[in-house]
Specification:
- The chain has 132 residues and is of the alpha+beta class.
- It is built from four helices and six strands, in the order H-H-E-H-E-E-E-E-E-H.
- The strands form three sheets. A two-stranded antiparallel ribbon has the order 1-6. A two-stranded antiparallel ribbon has the order 2-3.
- A hairpin with a 6-residue loop joins strand 4 and strand 5.
- It is rod-shaped.
- Keywords: Membrane, Transmembrane, Transmembrane helix.
Length: 132
């Protein structure tokens, strides 16, 4: 009875409904796009001696150097994981090995060619700059 007094779902209501649906879809896309553009690919530190080694040109010798220079972290007693935020550096003058925070990273491009995270190095101490 109230629908008849107010008017039925006519042409005007259909247009308004359609325009509201378009607005809602664009908001949903904006919310979900960050899942893909800000994904964090696997990455590792690049020390000064390893600055031009990428995933494409790693040989057995490079792998040995990387395995020696990248420290491992204990994961709650469940095993070791490669540190993504620090690297071991050899001081050639004193012969001491020190662990330093990374300044540059190499990213795994097997899933994503590039992401906002990899372009702007939003990992480790800069991870809070990502929106999610």
């Amino acid at each position: 009875d109230i629908v008849k007094s107010l008017g039925e779902f006519g042409t005007y209501q259909k247009r308004v409904y359609f325009l509201l649906c378009i607005a809602c879809m664009s908001c949903g896309i904006q919310v979900m796009i960050s899942v893909f553009t800000q994904a964090v690919p696997d990455h590792r530190c690049v020390g000064t001696d390893l600055s031009n080694y990428t995933q494409a040109n790693i040989s057995d010798e490079h792998t040995r150097i990387i395995n020696y220079s990248v420290p491992y972290n204990d994961i709650d007693g469940n095993g070791l994981d490669v540190s993504q935020c620090s690297v071991r550096m050899l001081d050639k003058a004193s012969g001491n090995i020190t662990e330093q925070m990374c300044k540059k990273w190499v990213y795994d491009n097997s899933v994503f060619q590039t992401t906002v995270t990899s372009q702007f190095d939003l990992v480790c101490e800069h991870k809070m700059l990502r929106s999610h």
